[in-house]
Amino acid sequence: MKCRDFHEIVDSYLCDELLTETNHEVLRHLEMCADCRGAIQSRRILREKLKSAVKNAGLFQMREGFQQELLVGLRQESKTLVSPNMFSSINRNSWMAVAAGLILTFSLGFWFFQNQNLNPSSAQIAGANEALKQVSLENLALGDHQHCAVKFNLAEDPIHIDLSSANYADLKQSVVNPLKNSADKYEFLESHTCKFQEHLFTHIVFLHQGKMISVLLTDLQNFGGLKKDEMIKTSDGNYQIARFDMKNQAVFVVSDLSKQENSATAELLQSSARQQLSVVKRAEPDSFVALKITH
Amino acid sequence: MPFSADLFRVAMFLKRDRDAAEDLVQETLVQALKSFHRYEQGTNCKAWLTTIMYHTHYKQLRKQINLHLVADTEEKIAGTVAFEAPIPQHITDEDVLQALEKVPQNFKEIVVLCDVEGFAYKEIASFLDVPIGTVMSRLHRGRKILRGELAVFARHYGIETEDTDKVIFKEGKSL
Hints:
The complex is a heterodimer of chains A (295) and B (175). Helix content of chain A is 59%, strand content 17%.
């Protein structure tokens, strides 16, 4: 290969658009030619500079609030659309959820009576009921992720977190901050409160490794809490669900990332929640404790 | 919204107007929502959305009475560029953007799609509905013009260029 030939194809080489044999010829030429090594470095610099210049230019940045407007517009649009495929997919998911619930109920019942010689104690019955409640709570979180973050198809429109109560905004910060400060890249997309099957969630959506990841928080009232530092990890085949508890809230991380990646996000949040709790405990003034005792 | 920032950048290059670009992004996502069942999971979602954006853009163009046709002169101008410029290490983003602005739209669009957005030649050919060879030749010319424009900045930074691929620095080093 001559220098002139090299200059004709150097950009295609950088774009990885050449055949393997031609790539080898380019590499052989580069080994021998210092001028062309300089030229390819110059092209690389130009590409990097062009990319960063365009991506950082204010002219090409979306204005604040446009994302939110897009989401609202798409949600309104999605209500008018019921494509046959979408409909069948919802049906399929619903049927899968019902089937999974039935299998789980029978499995738990079978295990329960097998192990208790058909004579379960009341505490064991309560335990089994709690397990079923938790399973259904996880299904609700999964359903919310699928219908809210992915399909934008809920019975009630979500309410933007800034328009909800201050408590929800605080919850949002406790989730957004640790992920924002993490070494892995989490792009915050939006936060709101939404209802799935009449169950209220604080819903924060991120983009991580090109996939949507939902962090859903819900009040533990009427539901059994997990043990301290416990984490549940389940999957419905397509989606991964991780759950841990934070104060009075159950926290779910739902995505179609790999189990390992989904769990890593949940562990990051759990560890941050643990640290926040210890800071709050240390900072609690004695007078406040005394006040609580007198009450 | 995933990819909305990428779509907006491409829309800005197509429309050169913020409001028109926002409308194009919105229309693209609505169209994508309507035809979501056609999207094949596991394929490049950004490329799929960009294809929809181009279709929507062309549809809007067809509706306009004063349809902007790409002048042949742009190709002729591109053909006359004779030299290659070095890229000064300390060139600023503004210099690069100014140089890019001087590249004819027909070529600039492809340079951005390939070098900024990272699409493959085949994907770009599909967006623009042109043969892959056209993409390659326009890309080649577009990059050459860009390097030519940057030569102006190179001189400004004290680097001399020749009408060949070889570049001589004042200190005597060659690149």
